[in-house]
Amino acid sequence: MVRLITHNILACHAKGCTQNNFPLQFKDASIELKEQEFNPDFLRNFLSRLEWKALVDTARELGDTSLPLEMPEMIDDEFLKNLHHVLLEIHVEEGAMICPNCGHSYPISNGIPNMLLAEHEIG
């Protein structure tokens, strides 16, 4: 399923697409909110792996404005709960992810992204 924790590491891998291929942009996204168990230690340990601007921009694109534009210096429970919601509870069920560079579309159906490329697109 496409959650923003996964989306935050996905880039286009089409042949010749090596610049400006992250983050993939959602198109016609249908989202569902699915409650997940809150684990603050996991979130604290995962923070350094996030591309913050990409995460915030994508969350806002999907209608969630709970994250600050800049990562705060003080990591409190309220921040972690908002981060938890954005990373783990927003599920994109239908739509597509579009490469901002080459325009390649990765369809999402039943929460599963199709990241496979046609033979002529592999490089």
The total of beta strands comes to 5
Number of domains: 1
CATH architecture name: Single Sheet
User: Percent helix among the residues?
Assistant: 25-40%
Poorly predicted runs are: none
CATH topology: N-terminal domain of TfIIb
Radius of gyration: 15 Å
β-sheet strand percentage: 15-25%
Number of helices: 4
SSE sequence, one letter per element: EHEHHHEEE
* CATH class label: Mainly Beta
Structural class: alpha+beta
Average the pLDDT over all residues and give the rounded result. Answer: 95
* Sheet with most strands: 5 strands, antiparallel
Q: Give the CA-based shape.
A: globular
Protein name: Trm112p-domain-containing protein
Family: Belongs to the TRM112 family.
Summary keywords:
alpha+beta; 5-stranded antiparallel beta sheet; 4 helices; 123 residues; N-terminal domain of TfIIb
Summarize this structure briefly:
This protein is an alpha+beta fold and 123 residues long. The protein is built from four helices and five strands, in the order E-H-E-H-H-H-E-E-E.
Structure description:
With 123 residues, the protein is an alpha+beta fold. It has one domain (2-101): N-terminal domain of TfIIb (Single Sheet), CATH 2.20.25. The chain contains 4 helices and 5 strands. It has helices spanning 4-7, 40-46, 52-61, 77-89, and strands at residues 2-3, 25-33, 90-98, 105-109, 112-113. The longest helix has 13 residues, at 77-89. 19% of the residues are buried. The model has no long low-confidence stretch (mean pLDDT 95).
